[in-house]
Every structure is written in structure tokens, then in C-alpha cells.
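PT: before anyone asks, these are the final sequences, not the draft ones from last week. 267 residues across everything. Please model them as a single complex and drop the result in this thread when it's through.
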Amino acid sequence: MRRPFVAGNWKLNLDLSAGRALVAGVAEKLPASLPIDVAVCPTSIYLFPMAKAISGTPIKLGGQNCWHESKGAFTGEVSAAMVKEAGCTYVILGHSERRHTIGPKDADGRIHAETDEMIAAKVRAAMSACLVPIVCIGETLEERDAGHTNEVLRRQINGSLAGVEAASGDSLVIAYEPVWAIGTGRTATPEQAQDAHQYIAALLMERFGSDVAGDIRIQYGGSVKPSNVVELMKCPDVDGALVGGASLKVDDFVGIIEGTIRAKGLD
Ligand code: PEP
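LR: through. Structure below.
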């Protein structure tokens, strides 16, 4: 069985003292060694102090983004090597809030408007810097309602992993995050999640072959909470969770970690 992986995406939330308090609270409630991987992903300016805050705990660190070039005239950007140097093991790439997002928009209704091509360049940069990218994919409600879910997943997997060489499955994580379930309180049913994960696993087999693909973890993300985590994690192709809102509260995040351990029979 692939080692389950629960990561908290803090987005633009928690100041430094709240972040420190959260990891201290989570670590206090968990055993020193865990049968799953757990990470928190704070905003980039807090990565260095948060690396210190998680030291001595079983919690690892992830960035929320990185740039695809290693240096140069890219005001405001952070390279993959810098994210690594700050103490990260992982980096989230291609989150829907960077693919589509909210706020002042361009003519096509997007802000950051990251394309699959840009995301693939970032994935390659992250892997060169020995970071494990958590590559987010997922369909919008319109795409699901139009019956295009699998087509979108195929396009995003092939596009966001273009030119990516994975020597082993543990060098890459995929997060299936249906856009309609992110921050909405509306969760995919276990059947919907399992169908999508099974399809993604088949795409990864085509892309990387069974030896590598069989070890790539596929997280589910979209309104995961302690109350729904066990049913979702019981799905055989769901290998963990990428958690937004519920990762900001000690009891909720610990509940999700414990629920994952229980659902996978690792308690
Ligand atoms: C996310 O933003 O990756 C996410 C899954 O958010 P939430 O859990 O709040 O839906």
C-alpha cells in the first residue's frame, strides 16, 4: 500500500504566531512517529521560521508555489531551490486558485491564469530542486455537468506533467481537487472520488508505466473534514488528502490525520 499523505494548504491564512501555535498544537496531539506522511504548507514568507517550528515533530513542510526559472528578473517570485532551502519537502503546484482564481480578473476571467504548460515547467523545476511537487488537477462544475470530467483530467495530467521524468513514484504527488468542492463545503462522494482517482491512476500508468505509477500517491482535496474523511479514505485509490479550511484548526486537522490512519487500517 502507498503511504497515505495528508497536507494542509494554509493559503493566505495564519500569521506567524498562529502558524507556530497550530503546529505545536497538532504535534502535541500526535505520536512522535506516524504511519502516514503529514505536511503543512504556509505562505512562502513564513517557510524558514515554520521549518524551525516543525523541527522535532513528524510534520513536514511544503510551499504553496514556486517559479519555473532558477534566477533572473522575476520580481516577487521564489525559485524551487529557495523553497527547498527554506526546509520544504513538498511544493503545491497548479492549485485551482492559481489556474483560475478570484479577484480582479483578465478578459478570460482569470488572475494568475496558470496554464498546464507553465505548471509543467514548475513541476520540472521543483523536481530538479529535489522537491516533491503536489500537482493539483480537477474539473469545474460546468465541466462535470457537461460530462467532461475525464477529458479535463486527461488534459491536465498530460499537460501539467509534460516533459516530466519520474524515476520513482515517491518523487511526485497528484491532488485530485474538483474545483466545485474547494472551499464550498460540498464534498465529492466517495464514489465520485474513487472514480476520478481510478481514472487518474490509469492515466499515470500510461504516462509512467506501472512500476513508477503504482507508487505515485493521489490525494483527494475539496472540503475534507473529520466527519467525511474516513469514508473518502476508505476508497482504495485515495491515498490521502489535501486540506484547506480544516487544516487551520488543530482539532480538525488532527481529526483528519487520525481518520486517515483509521480508514487505512494503520492504527
Ligand atoms: C484546497 O484549497 O486545496 C482545499 C482542498 O480547500 P478546502 O479543504 O477548504 O476545500
